[in-house]
Write a structure and sequence with these properties.
This protein is mainly alpha-helical and 151 residues long. It has 2 domains: 2-105, no CATH class; 111-146. It contains 6 helices and no strands. The chain has helices at 2-34, 36-42, 46-69, 74-88, 91-103, 107-142. Helix 1 runs parallel beside helix 4 (74-88), helix 3 packs across helix 5 and helix 5 (91-103) packs antiparallel against helix 6 (107-142).
Length: 151
């Protein structure tokens, strides 16, 4: 019986994360649209920056309150933190994990995590861009099209 109850809670966790994720994605999209004019006029990704800053603040606030001050239903915690804020911004999780490593005195892991998360993720994005451009260029050449691609 206990195993079945554990499975039900786990299944409900997926539902909570899915609902939170849906709502977080909508919130991110809405805020991004709200900043679209400013982004277009300045060329700076204000929407993403504000979303990431807000997400970091809210995740730290929420987890501190719900883990240290008030006990809430674990489904609400996972639905909001992993679901909503996970879809709203992944930078908030990165920030909290970095703080946890520092607080645990894991300075080597902190540096490694920062390096990998910042530089290697950017490198992987660049690699993905280059691979995609290579595939498009290859297909264009195979089809006898002009191989020039916009940068």
């Amino acid at each position: 019986m206990l195993k079945e109850e554990g499975m039900q809670v786990m299944n409900l966790s997926y539902v909570a994360v899915a609902i939170g994720g849906f709502l977080g994605a909508l919130a991110r999209f809405g805020m991004g649209q709200g900043f679209a004019g400013l982004v277009q006029s300045t060329g700076f990704p204000w929407g993403t920056l504000v979303i990431n800053l807000l997400g970091c603040f809210v995740l730290a606030l929420f987890l501190t309150v719900t883990l240290d001050l008030f006990d809430i239903n674990p489904l609400i915690r996972v639905g909001f933190s992993t679901g909503f804020l996970g879809a709203f911004t992944t930078f908030s999780t990165f920030s909290m994990e970095t703080i946890q490593l520092i607080r645990a005195g894991q300075y080597w892991y902190t540096g490694l995590y920062l390096f990998c998360s910042i530089f290697l993720c950017i490198a992987m994005a660049a690699l993905g861009f280059m691979v995609t451009r290579g595939i498009v260029q290859f297909r264009a050449n195979q089809q006898g099209m002009d191989g020039e691609l916009e940068k």
